[in-house]
Design brief:
Chain A is mainly α. Chain A is built from 16 helices and four strands. In chain A, a hairpin with a 2-residue loop joins strand 1 and strand 2.
Chain lengths: ~400, ~160
């Protein structure tokens, strides 16, 4: 029993990696469709074969012009276009850094997926355990924090190396913004680490699935959703969601690349695949943040009834339970991505000084308060008045 | 321990992480190289000019920028280092406090935590008061009354002869 485990592991890694990469073009398409829906437009509906324009039409509602998969082949067209466009490198750019920056934009968010558990453990046969997680690093969330902060380099390099004014402004802003909101995010996660008593994301999910006294206030039942971090750390949930949007440079925090004043921000001078990599990196980062949010606050792969399904002896039911868990995780993760797209058309962009104020004067003090509150709530339960806890101990000592 | 009873070596897990990193570098690099083979390549001088709204760019972009960005970076380093020091405490806090009636260690740790957070907060208050977190230096907005009196003095200071002229 040696190499099979490695094969299983490799398959799991490839599935997670391939899954993340292949979802990205569709996310771009969905963002365009959702934006169109929110603004009461049609959105991309041309690239396809012939037939229904949207899902609604496919099921018989809103019948109109029929195109098979109208618009649904847009992701493919986008990829081909990015692939075949000429890449222009500005003559005065710092070439090594310029070429390195897109890599720094894509790799860190991908690496964040290393520690995010996407599903429950599958016990294939006696003793063979497949973790639906790339690697169960004990440092867990610290690894994500370490890796995610590297992505700021991608934006800063891209902005600086282009030797152009708009990208420089975008890059400098990106650095300051990501750094500011990282402080808030790290503080928020600190309270969660205290609540879950672990830095491992895997442990966090199992704590939420098991229920119990997560915060020390109320004893919750793990069968239903009351064990989820959302109900135990509501303030942390809100703060984390805000920080996640800011770390991903999504509206209302998209100052590093705001189209209306900085053209394209840090990626103004990028074309072809260089631009494509920045774009991809942004969406992967969104998914990674969604994955973190789902893992820490929404119970990860946990869903009501999971314990009941896993109680069965049948391997098939076990696999089904794991599959449902995987799907549930995907829905939670993409739910955040949808939320980010929704917010984009709801809130206007912050001004730079407002952004700094929200980060330093709003989120950080609140996160500090949340941390102290969490610690205070987790202090030992006060002993009932009639009970003197130390009496036995002193008696024993005296005997000795 | 894994199900076979072998110690679960942390280093092996890092190996998997490294595998993913190598895979990612290979795929991303492969995409970049593949795209290089497919796409056209005929740069001209005009194409390689940096973008500046269609005008010829004026000089290099590697100029000095606002000093406040450095200040933010400095404050960040300070905060980050302090927060990293709280992580170990947070990770073991509940194991010291929950399920026990013994207030001794819990209170010591809680006190230390409070002290640390207080130091952090003090730092925040210091930078806040110093005005390093506000991007635009605050200035007094003139009140209605102030504006009116300013207009009066301005009107009075204009010589009658000038007005006629």
């Amino acid at each position: 029993m040696g190499w099979e485990l490695y094969v299983l592991k490799a398959v799991a890694v490839l599935l997670i990696f391939g899954g993340v990469l292949s979802v990205v073009p569709f996310l771009v398409f969905f963002e365009r469709k959702i934006s169109a829906f929110i603004q009461d437009r049609v959105g991309p509906n041309r690239v396809g074969l012939a037939g229904p324009d949207s899902l609604l039409e496919a099921f018989g509602f809103r019948k109109g012009t029929r195109r098979v998969l109208g618009g649904w082949l847009q992701p493919l067209a986008d990829v081909i276009k990015l692939f075949t466009k000429e890449a222009l490198i500005p003559a005065h750019a710092d070439r090594p850094l310029y070429l390195l920056a897109p890599l720094f934009a894509v790799l860190p968010p991908l690496l964040a997926f290393v520690v995010i558990p996407v599903g429950q453990d599958i016990v294939v046969s006696s003793g063979v355990l497949v973790k639906l997680q790339v690697a169960d690093l004990h440092v867990g969330i610290l690894f994500v924090l370490a890796v995610a902060s590297l992505s700021a380099y991608g934006l800063a390099f891209g902005g600086w190396a282009s030797n152009s004014k708009f990208p420089l402004l975008g890059g400098v802003r990106a650095m300051a913004q990501m750094v500011s909101y990282e402080v808030g995010m790290v503080l928020v996660i600190l309270a969660l680490v205290m609540s879950y008593d672990s830095v491992s994301l895997r442990d966090m999910v199992s704590r939420q699935a098991a229920g119990g006294t997560l915060l020390g206030i109320w004893d919750c039942d793990g069968d239903w959703i009351w064990g989820w971090g959302l109900f135990h750390q509501p303030l942390a949930f809100v703060l984390f969601a805000i920080c996640a949007l800011a770390e991903n440079n999504r509206l209302p925090f998209d100052l590093p690349e705001c189209e209306s004043e900085l053209v394209g921000g840090y990626h103004t001078e990028y074309s072809s695949m260089g631009f494509g990599m920045f774009f991809q990196g942004e969406y992967i980062a969104m998914m990674a943040m969604g994955g973190l949010l789902a893992t820490m606050f929404l119970g990860g792969w946990h869903y009501p009834g999971y314990a009941w399904l896993n109680a069965s002896d049948s391997l098939l039911v076990h696999l089904l339970a794991a599959l449902i868990g995987l799907a549930v995780f995907g829905v939670k993760m993409l739910g955040f991505v949808f939320f980010a797209m929704w917010v984009r058309w709801t809130l206007p962009r912050f001004r730079w000084d407002q952004l700094m104020r929200v980060g330093w004067k709003g989120i950080i003090p609140l996160a500090l308060a949340n941390l102290v509150l969490t610690a205070a709530l987790n202090l030992p339960a006060p002993a009932p008045a009639h009970e003197k806890p130390d009496r036995n101990l002193t008696a024993v000592t005296r005997d000795r | 321990m894994d199900p076979q009873g072998r110690p679960n070596l942390e280093i092996a897990e890092y190996g998997t992480a490294l595998f993913l990193l190598l895979l990612a570098v290979a795929v991303v690099g492969g995409l970049l190289v593949l795209s290089r083979l497919v796409r056209p390549h005929n740069p001209t001088r005009e194409k390689q000019i940096t973008y500046e709204c269609g005008e010829d760019p004026l000089g290099s972009a590697w100029l000095r920028f606002n000093i406040r960005f450095y200040v933010v970076a400095l404050v960040f380093v300070l905060f980050d280092v302090e927060m990293v020091l709280i992580y170990p405490v947070a990770a073991i806090f509940r194991s010291l406090t929950v399920g026990t009636r013994d207030w001794g260690p819990a209170l010591v740790v809680f006190g230390e935590l409070l002290f640390f957070v207080a130091v952090l907060f003090l730092g925040l208050v210091y930078v806040w008061r110093k005005g390093d977190l506000g991007w635009i230096r605050s200035f007094r907005v003139p009140t209605e009354q102030g504006l009116r009196s300013w207009k009066r003095t301005a009107a009075a200071s204009v010589a009658p002869g000038e007005k006629a002229g």
